[in-house]
Amino acid sequence: MKTETAIAGGLVATDTGAFPATVAIAGGRVVGLVDPSERPDADEVIDARDRLVLPGCIDPHVHFNEPGRTHWEGFETGSMSAAAGGVTTVIEMPLNANPPTVDAAAFALPCGAASSPITWRPSKDCSGRGPSATRLS
Fold it and tell me: In this structure, are residues 116 and 75 in contact, taking their beta carbons and an 8 Å threshold?
C-alpha cells in the first residue's frame, strides 16, 4: 500500500491492546496498520523503533479566554501546550472571553484561533446557547 507517511516499527496502542505495527497515513488520516516486518511504501517514514505510538487525545473542555484575556491563556499558547501533551483536538468552552462568546456575532470576532496547531471546536455555554459556527482544521 502506497501512503504519504508511515510510522514504522513502534508499539502501537489501540482499544484492543498494544502490538508492534507500522501505521500507514494518507490524506492526514490513518488508513491501515501494517505488519512491522513489511517495508513501508511511503513518501515519509518516521522511525518509531523503541517507542510507543499512541492516538491523539481529545480535551473536551478548555478555556482559551480569547478575545480579551489572552494574558491568562489564548488559542496560540493553549493549543500549543495541548499539542505538546499529545492532544490533537480541543473543544473550547467560552467562559472568560471579553466579550463573552454567547452568540454567533461574538464568535465571529477576530481571535488567535487561526494560529492553533490542532483541531478545535467551540462548545455551547451551560445555558445551551452559544455559537452555531464551527471550525475544524
Answer: yes
Q: How confident is the model over 43-86, as pLDDT tens digits?
A: 999 999 999 998 888 888 888 777 677 677 777 888 888 888 88
Number of domains in the chain: 2
Pick from 95, 85, 83: nearest CA to 120 = 83
Torsional class of 27: left (φ above 0), alpha (ψ -120 to 50), beta (otherwise): left
> Is residue 130 included in any domain, yes or no?
no
Residue 136 within any structural domain of the chain = no
Radius of gyration of the chain (CA): 19
Range of the structural domain that residue 36 is part of: 2-53
Residue 128 pLDDT class (50, 70, 90 cuts):
very low
The strand order across the sheet containing 87-92 reads: 57-62, 87-92, 119-122
pTM of the model: 0.56
Buried-state track 16-30, b at ≥16 Cβ within 10 A, e below 16 = eeeeebbbbbbeeee
Return d(Cα 94, Cα 122) in angstroms, integer: 7
The verdict on 30 and 61 lying in the same domain is no
